[in-house]
Predict the 3D structure of the following.
Amino acid sequence: MASHAAVDLPQKAACLGASPLPRPARFVPRRAARKAACSASGASRTQKAAVSSGVAAKAAATEAPSANSAASDQGDYSACATTFTTWLIKQEQLGIIDSEFAVVLSSIALACKQIASLVGRAGISNLTGLAGEENVQGEAQKKLDVVSNTVFSNCLRSTGRTGIIASEEEEFPVFVEETYSGNYVVVFDPLDGSSNIDAGISVGSIFGAYLPSEECSMEDAEDGETLLNNCVLNVCQPGNMLKAAGYCLYSTSTVLVLSVGNGVFGFTLDPLIGEFVMSHPYMQVPESGKIYSFNEGNYDMWDDDVKAYINSLKDPDKWGGKPYSSRYIGALVGDFHRTMLYGGIYGYPGATNAPNGKLRLLYECAPMSFLAEQAGGMGSTGKERVLDIDPTAVHQRVPLFIGSKKEVEYLESFTMGK
Ligand code: AHM
Ligand code: MG
């Protein structure tokens, strides 16, 4: 296999979105085949909203019985397990993804396996503690943040199908020089919630993948500055253009959850065979759930409407004597995975010291909101749908409220006065 050198682009503060970047009028898939493969690509925004929130969920529900029956037929799963690889092949056969995209997703699964192994052995392989550097957000990087970023980047580069990658741990998007074809744009947080690592608590990876935009062709880039601008334009696409999104939870088990736009599927890593095995077909977030997951230490710095919302959840008289339960790991992947399974709401609101909260739009809020909607839930800033936000910077932050549809709507009844 050919080697794939990456060019670290020249540093240019303006391109980080100090002023909003001009955006192309629309993003057009490069080939008709891709158009067919990605059902939402030619749809209007309204249609895409419908696809994400309702229609796709309905389609998933319609198809669900066959997947569920396949799962129940498995009994002793090892007899006829659906692995991530066989599932990917099936998606390709169905025309939901193309073979190039299957290679990209497969490389992400490989990165997740490697990171799971590193996380599991961190305490005995000198991988706990700080790396001694800060990332672009001014956060102290853990050793595993750095190693996980390298693993993710290398896996994506080695596919020859990824054109641009953007990571929480890299200041600028990176253009991968040698690609055979595909040029998919992948955004990721290689190890989210890494402050938990040294205590052996859940952490995770988050990722999203986009088609490249024709208007920002890498082929037209004659110099480093143009290349950098093209990279940023390619990366700064709204979540409603995502072609896939997912996360991998490193916890009591390693669980890869993803969607390519036709429902949400979860795969648990079987360490005995080194394969992700289908464990959660057609995941649906419960419509409601009495669990809230917020860092309440920030309460005094929140807006009055968010305070009023939280107070209402804790009022026993309002909920038949049993108020909501509070659960907060402090690792988005863990808190979100529980919300997907049990229902409820995860929130990271803006605060007086951080008006847009803490979480990053491109590689945290948008991919998780895509999954939430694909599973019948919602992702909101409290003011608008997360997937409709046009990013203006690679590391842009937005408030996030995500989870069960009825719970997010209830939150919005305070923040939007609905
Ligand atoms: P990170 O990307 O630097 O790890 O930060 C994101 C994490 C989320 O996983 C988690 O929900 C949140 O930060 C916790 O923040 P806080 O400690 O302020 O509650
Ligand atoms: Mg993160």
User: Anything to note?
Assistant: The longest helix spans residues 45-74. The chain has ten helices and 16 strands. The CA atoms of residues 285 and 341 lie 6 Å apart. The first strand starts at residue 6 and ends at 7.
